[in-house]
Amino acid sequence: MSSTVISRLAPTPSGNLHIGNAFNFLLTYLLVHYHEGLLHLRIDDLDGPRVERSSVEDIFVQLEWLGIDYHYGPSGPDELYSRHSQQLRIDRYHHTIEVLKKSGHLFACECSRSEIRQFSSSTNYPGTCRNKKLDFMKENQAWRVKVPEETIVSCRTLTNQKKNIDLTTKMGDFVIRRRDGLPAYQIASLIDDLEMGVNLVVRGHDLLASTAAQLFLSKCLKDSFFPAAYFVHHQLMKNESGEKLSKSSGDHSLQTLRLKYSSPSVIFQQSAKLLNLPFQDIQTLEDLKEVFLSAMVQNNRLMSLLD
Ligand SMILES: [Zn+2]
Predict the structure, then answer these.
(1) Helix boundaries (H) for 150-299
(2) pLDDT number for residue 49
(3) 53 in a domain, yes or no?
(4) pTM confidence score
(5) What separation in Å is there between the alpha carbon of 147 and the centre of ligand 1?
(6) Ligand 1 centroid from CA 127, angstroms
(7) Quick count: other Cβ atoms within 10 Å of Cβ 34?
(8) What's the DSSP call for residue 128?
(9) Is residue 181, in this structure, part of any structural domain at all?
(10) Other C-beta atoms within 10 Å of 281: how many?
């Protein structure tokens, strides 16, 4: 990579973080470290009043426990609320949504969740309101982005390959302004990434469709920066029965693990294991770094795992 690598940790404060979130943070941290890049902490607190302070506090406590430091971002909840919160940037998100609306990319949608379920065979929106030309100013409507048939978006992987994602099938016309009038995650995440100059995005492969949605928005906005970013869509950490972890599953929460184990070494080991790295001797973050860095230098298999 030619320019300085800039990435971010982007936790959502909705419940306590779990070991899967820790894996994402560690991988992001390791990749940034490998590239001698810069790391932001960005807390996705778009939900505002619904965000509980304890969830915000949990993020800082767990990052400190793991030993992950970052170059930019809040050092604690107070600094988040006063300087970094997405609440403070809401006008910018709305401004961009207006730009998209004026350029004809959006439509208003009055469907309820149950109506969408009723008419769609998948979880995707069936396009009910796309041609209704509903008045944008009416209350209690979502605004959606028109995604034409067969929209394939490609993202750039770490090894400079193009990964194609079928946005039409994976997501369809997606919400950009929610029924409650708040900007949706897709636009907030994109605007923040652009403003922070993020050129490396590390996220779970469950967010592949979000990557496609955000790249599609970037194209609608005639932006050329985001399509040049590198994307890593990593495997997800699973529970004992092979299911994706959720913020409600207490056993895997970092809070529980922190009480159970004196050191986070078990988390470092699990993370190394998921990356097919030798994990038995890892005790500290420094050990994990060492194992990861030497694998990046010698081992193309690790790169293909991250692709
Ligand atoms: Zn609709």
Answers:
(1) 167-170, 185-196, 208-220, 254-260, 265-274, 285-298
(2) 72
(3) yes
(4) 0.94
(5) 14
(6) 6
(7) 15
(8) T
(9) no
(10) 10
